[in-house]
Amino acid sequence: MTGDTVGARAWRSMRSVLAESWDRLRDLTTASPSRFAVGVFLTLILLFTALFMLPAAAADGQSTAFADALFTAVSTICVTGLSTVDMGTHWSPFGHVLVYIGVNVGALGVLTLASILGLVISKRLGLRAKLIAAGDTNPLRAHGGPVNEGQTVRLGEVGQLLATVALSTLVIEAGLAILLYPSLLLSGIDPISALWEAPYYAAMSFTNTGFAPNAGGLEPFAQNYVVLTLLMAGVFLGSIGFPVIFTLWRHHFHVRRWSLHAKLTVITTVVLFFAGAGVFLLLEYDNPETFGGMDAWDTTFQAFFLSAMTRSGGFSVVDMSELHGSSLVVGSMLMFVGGGSASTAGGIKVTTLAVLALAVWSEAKGRPSVEAFGRRIPSDVQRVALSVVAWGATIVALSTVTITQITQQPVEYVLFDVISGFATVGLSTGVTQQLPDSAVYVMALTMFMGRVGTVTLAAAVAATSRSQHYSLPVERPIVG
């Protein structure tokens, strides 16, 4: 009888602990969704690190070193595309499946994934979670206050947005895979291998990761413009962001009905795409190691392909280390900008660049407010844009100095790879594969901070917002 009583008490105590833990987890999803999202990503990274260390994940049947497994997990979950091992030969079929699953999970985004998990746990999305979800999916974020009417995604549309994210990912990747399959066959890939490589390349292009399942990467497809064009299309769709996909889905080509965010994203993306291609064409047309040995058509096409991939795609046909130094600088600038907000791309985002450019233009014109397409951009959005650029530049600078000191590699190569990691691009001059373990951890942290996002990371650390009910006297310091 005593034994039964002790057992019952132990059972009740365990149930109480589990219930309390569950309540705390549920409260975390509604009270601090940003911090919960960071925790979700960290948990996924640790889980995939353990899976990549399994002997079954490696082609040689040996356990992968912790530093390489951790770096691959971060690069996979953060959809970066950088690697310290040869992705085509190091991993077994099981390892490639892990990569495929990881990039699709990571492509959902930090707060989108957290919102879905929070909905499952708490059976609802609280007001704060809705505000944060709405904020992450458009650049006009909620800053501790009510959602502005001009925001791209309103509270009532959060559920529709989450459905759009999952549905668009599935439909776009499936469509790309179907189109890629016959093109791979024409390049000499056998039908069985193409059944796997087609959805793999589709996922890597839409998620803007850039991993390749074969040892030669894109080398077998260097002259297959159908495959390269499809990869560019996948990268473009992934980089414009889910809010833009949501807007295009609802309004199609009725541009006047597009949100300001969608207009700025599409216009800036197209401008950078053509400008980047023009600059690469100008700088590399006489480089015998890259475009110098190609005819006019090949040179032009490869310039556009390189411009698309430096935005966040990560695929490469030419060796990045063979580019002129001036081209590496241009590529670094394009990578730092990245793609659209709430997209599979990284960087400071094109809307951030557009807002800052509009602010500079308005200041030069002496206008009291920043306006675009008949809409006024509030000052808090401009402050967020400045904060994102400042924090991004700080992270890149610190990481570059640290890795350069550790490796003593040329700083222009290190800077290129660091920005590629921060902006989750995946292009490399070859520095990343030569990093010692200490520098591997620095680069992994850079990739994580770049993917989670500086604003989200700051919100996770701050945890709560504080309102100030008074204002201090004004005094103007000398600027410039």
Automatic annotation (TrEMBL):
The record, for InterPro entries, names: Cat_transpt
Q: Name one GO cellular component term.
A: plasma membrane
Q: What are the protein's UniProt keywords?
A: Cell membrane, Ion transport, Membrane, Transmembrane, Transmembrane helix, Transport
**Record's bilayer topology term:** Multi-pass membrane protein
Compartments annotated for it: namely: Cell membrane
Answer whether the UniProt record assigns the keyword Phosphoprotein to this protein.
Answer: no
* One Pfam family this sequence matches: TrkH
| Molecular functions per Gene Ontology | monoatomic cation transmembrane transporter activity
Transmembrane annotation, as ranges: 36-58, 97-121, 161-181, 225-249, 261-283, 333-361, 381-401, 438-463
Q: Name one GO biological process term.
A: metal ion transport
Q: What is its main location?
A: membrane
What name goes with this protein? Potassium transporter Trk
